[in-house]
Structures are given as C-alpha cells and as structure tokens.
Amino acid sequence: MSTAPLQRDRQGWARLAAELRPEGRAFIDGKLVPARSGELFDDVSPIDGRVICRIARGAAADVDAAVAAARRAFEAGTWRGLPPAERRRIMLRFAELIRADVERLALLETLDVGKPIANSVSVDAANCASCIAYYAELADKLYDQVAPTGSSDVALILREPLGVVGAIVPWNYPLIISAWKLGPALVTGNSVVLKPAEQSPLSAIRLGELACEAGIPPGVLNVVPGLGEEAGKALALHRDVDIVSFTGSTEVGRLMLRYAGESNLKRVALELGGKTPHVVLADADLRSAAEGIAWGIYYNSGETCHAGSRVLVHESVKEALIEEVRRIARTITLGHPLDPATQMGALIDRAHMQRVLGYIASGVEAGARIVEGGAQTLQETGGFYVQATVLDDVRADMQVAREEIFGPVLAMLAVPDETEAVRLANDSDYGLAAAVWTADMNVAHRVSRALRGGSVWVNCFDRSSMATPFGGFKHSGFGRDRSPHAIDKYTDLKTIWTAYR
C-alpha cells in the first residue's frame, strides 16, 4: 500500500474500502479459524449503517481453545524463554509491520468505529505501532534485584510473567488500547487472549496476523471476537487465565471483579469510565481554555473515557467562555469519516446515538439549555451522527453533570470560587482525569493537587506520551496503562533466598 496515506482524497479511500476484504475469523494458535459453533454476527459500520462483513461469533468453546493455546505456548517457553534481546527484535518487527500496514489498519478502524480517517492514520495506527516499539525497547532493560542481606546469604528478587493474560478492549480506540495491553504483557513473556469489542473486531484480528508474521510464536497472541456476554464473560470466568485486563464501562468492570471471584481469583486491572472536570478560574486565558475544552469533548465524537465533559467555570467569565467554545465547535468539520478533511465522525451505533440524544433530552427536561448543537445530523447517510453540543445552566445534580454520556455533549456549570469548583470537581464517582485553567501557578499547583484524578492537566488538555502512566481513581478503576508502570500489572515478584554454608 501507499507510503503516503493522507494524500488520498475521499474517493481514493472509498475505492480502497471497496477493494478491502476484511478478515472476520478468530485468530487462535497462529491460525485463522471460524467459531466452533459456526455462528456469525454482522459487523455494522456506523458511517452508513451497512454491514462491513460477518464475524465469527466466538463463545466459551473458542475461548477454551485460545486459552489452551496460550497456556501451551507459555509452558513451552517458546516466547518467555527467548533471550530478552530476541523478544525486543521480534516486537520491533511487529511495530514495523503495523507501520507498513497503516492504510489497511486505519481503514479497518474507520469503517468499524466511524472515526475520521485522518485520525485513524496519524493517531490510532501510529500510536499503536509506537506503543509496541516503546515496550519492545524495554525488553532487555528490565533488571531484577539483589536484596541487602548478610554476607552468607544472597536474596534475588525476580520479576516473572503471570502466564495467560485475558485482554478485553473497548470500541472507541481499538488499536491504541489493544497496544497498551499487548505491549507490556508480551514484553514480559506472557501469552495473551485478546477479546475485541463486538462493534470493532477487525483491527484486532489483523494485529494477530501481523504479530505472527513478525515472529511471535503461535499461541502467544490469540484473538477471539464475539459478544461481550458470551466470549468476554467466558474469558473473565476462565480458570486458566491469570489476569483480566479490562477497559470499558464501570458497569462491566464490576462484572469483571465478580467473575474473578467466582472463578480462580484471577487478578483484575480496570480502566473504566470518567466524567472529567475542567476547572476554569476567573483569570484563565479563555481562548486557550476554550480550545482545550472544545477538542477535549468533540475529539473522537466525545467517545473518550477521559473526555472533558463538564466545565466548572467561574461565574464572572462563564458567558465569555461559552461563546469561545461555541466559536471553536463551529469550526470543527463533522462529516463523512473517509474524507480526510473530516474532524468529527460518527457515533459507534444506533443504540449509542439514541443514548446520547436521550441524555441531551434529559438535561433539557431538568432545566438545562441547549446553546449549541443538540441534535442528530447527516441522517441521509444512514449513519449515526450527533452535532457538537453545549448545555448551559447545568446543575451539579443533573444526570448530564454526573453520568458518563460518552458523546459530544459538554455541560457548563457556573461556580462562585475556587473552593466550590474543587468540591464539585471531586463530587463524582469517577476519578480518571481533570484539568485546571488559571494564570496563577500557585493556584494551579494547589488546585491540581486537590483534584482527585489519575491525570491532571494544567493550562492544557490531553497532553500525554508513552512515558506517563494512565488510569484512574474511584469508579474509574485501578492499575495503569502506558509507561514502565504498566509492567507491574503483568508480572509478579519472586524471592529466591540462597544461604551459603
């Protein structure tokens, strides 16, 4: 495929999509296989409501086969037994194959999820490759320890892989979040069974193929598509899975904990929902704040776990801030996801679109005002699009201020002072992220320390790199993705104490 994918226009991408033959089978033990039952389900594109292809409907029998393959590979040591430098070489090859396949992966992502093709190319596929490469480089740089003891003893502290990892990923960032789990799990020698969301299985299956092509042995990475209540539940309940690493809703995160308790007390790592607050103080640079706020909620159509969906703004500058946000929202191009000029695409499916519209209606019914957007659009496409929306006069007790909407809906709340802003920001079940906007760095330091979130941005939003951990407090889950800290989830410590006589 072309080495300059963003040079294609909409017609070019449409032609490529017409030629594409997506793979819908499971990838188990190095092979593409149908579901054991032979059952299939439709993969519907949110772009236009059409069926992209039919997908293997994996269930308990398929999960059993994938876990068995993963366990065989782990016990045989075909991956964990390799010298770290060899794992590094193979994972770097995996990253290069992802980069070489950027057009196919980006197209699969856009067709499946409805996000703009420009983002799928330059953000999702690119970050997937960068994440795998980042962890590859750690392979031969992770040191064990020698504990301080007396001269007649040696105590080694070794970091060992857990075994079989069940990785369950959501539909909003399939490539990126899959890589966040695969990178640290694979570099430490684990085997993985990856369960993609039923709405977005295509890129995960392709990753399985590319991993095997790169030299990762059969059975080390398996991909089982299927419904959450079938394949996902079976993976979380499986007694030969050592950890389930789940990203998704808080509701399903609770089920993961229950399934772990009902099965083998497997470990659970959770990255769940969010209701990220922006604290905007009276002295903030409103143009900069509005830019961060608008893109923080409208990027990816608001389908981001840490989307900045509520703004706690000082009452003296609220109206001015709203006008700035509205101005920026009107510059964001909502359109066909295969058009490289599109900046905001479709929501994932019809049911989710109706849920988002229902939240907007509930806000209005409770007394909020729509001051921008608020409606479905582009109905003629057959897809699922909602306008960039701003709700004003929101109270802290409204659903739109407390519950995760997961769409392009911004709730504006006026506050009288810093103290009330921090109180309301922390008055949430969630604690994934937060932001503070102020010209006073003393205040910025004080407020950022007071905000309960796994990430807090000061005078910016959603700045990150692979070097920083990502995860939440409270109902937003526990455990961290990204950075060397993610290694901790997929390994355990063993002490070997030797006494010399």
- CATH C-level name of the largest domain: Alpha Beta
Q: In the CATH hierarchy, what is the architecture of the largest domain at level 2?
A: 3-Layer(aba) Sandwich
Q: How many distinct folded domains?
A: 2
Low-confidence stretches: none
Largest sheet: 7 strands, mixed
Oligomer: single chain
CATH superfamily of the largest domain: Aldehyde Dehydrogenase, Chain A, domain 1
Report the C-alpha radius of gyration, rounded.
23 Å
CATH topology group of the largest domain: Aldehyde Dehydrogenase, Chain A, domain 1
> Helical residue percent?
25-40%
Compact description:
The protein is α/β, with parallel strands linked by helices. The chain contains 15 helices and 24 strands. It has two domains: 25-272 and 477-495, Aldehyde Dehydrogenase, Chain A, domain 1 (3-Layer(aba) Sandwich), CATH 3.40.605; 277-465, 3-Layer(aba) Sandwich (Aldehyde Dehydrogenase, Chain A, domain 2), CATH 3.40.309.
What do you see in this structure?
The protein has 501 residues and is α/β, with parallel strands linked by helices. It folds into 2 domains: 25-272 and 477-495, Aldehyde Dehydrogenase, Chain A, domain 1; 277-465, Aldehyde Dehydrogenase, Chain A, domain 2, CATH 3.40.309. Helices cover 39% and strands 21% of the residues. The strands form 7 sheets. A 7-stranded mixed sheet has the order 14-17-18-13-12-20-21, sandwiched between helices. The protein has a 6-stranded mixed sheet with strand order 9-8-7-10-11-23, sandwiched between helices. Strand 20 (433-437), helix 15 (441-450) and strand 21 form a beta-alpha-beta unit. Helix 3 (84-100) crosses helix 7 (202-214). It is globular.
